[in-house]
Amino acid sequence: MNVSLNGFRESMVTFETETSLSAGTPVKLTANGVVGPCADGDVFCGVAANERGGFAAVQLGGYLRLPYDGTAPAVGFQNLCAAGNGKIKVTATGGRSLLVTDVDTAAQTCGIIL
After folding, report:
1. In a domain, 4, yes or no
2. Are 67 and 105 within one domain?
């Protein structure tokens, strides 16, 4: 891709974590103000940017590059959900309709706007 969307409408929120999270992990709310990693098929609310001391900065909006599992998403609006392994995947039902801006099939990553 010849343009950069990094920083576009980035929106970060701090949540408590139920367990340690790696940066780039899709997360879901598990309790009031608490996030945890997603299982396969879960709808993710955002992506952990970092975690320290039982708290995580979670990106809830803006542009992200994430690894995908399974079929490569197409550019345009796609229904996406967590793949349960720190990745996302295309889903026929459920998930979130998100804008896929670019796909790198060699690296198995895609750019999305939350």
Report:
1. no
2. yes
Higher-pLDDT residue of 43 and 84 is 43
Structural domain span for residue 87: 63-113
Instruction: List pLDDT tens digits, range 72-107.
Output: 999 999 999 999 899 999 999 889 999 999 999 999
pTM of the model: 0.89
Q: What is the token pair recorded at 12? A: 């970060």
CB 96 within 8 A of CB 45: no
Task: Tell which residue, 69, 63, 68, has the closest CA to residue 10.
Answer: 63
- Grouping H, G, I as helix, E, B as strand and the rest as coil, residue 50 is strand
| Residue 8, pLDDT score | 80
CB of 30 within 8 A of CB of 38? no
Long-range contacts for 26-32 (Cβ within 8 Å, ≥24 apart)?
26/66, 26/82, 26/86, 26/87, 26/88, 27/56, 27/58, 28/82
Q: Looking at the predicted structure, is the pLDDT value of residue 71 above 90?
A: yes
* Statement to judge: residues 18 and 47 lie in one domain: yes
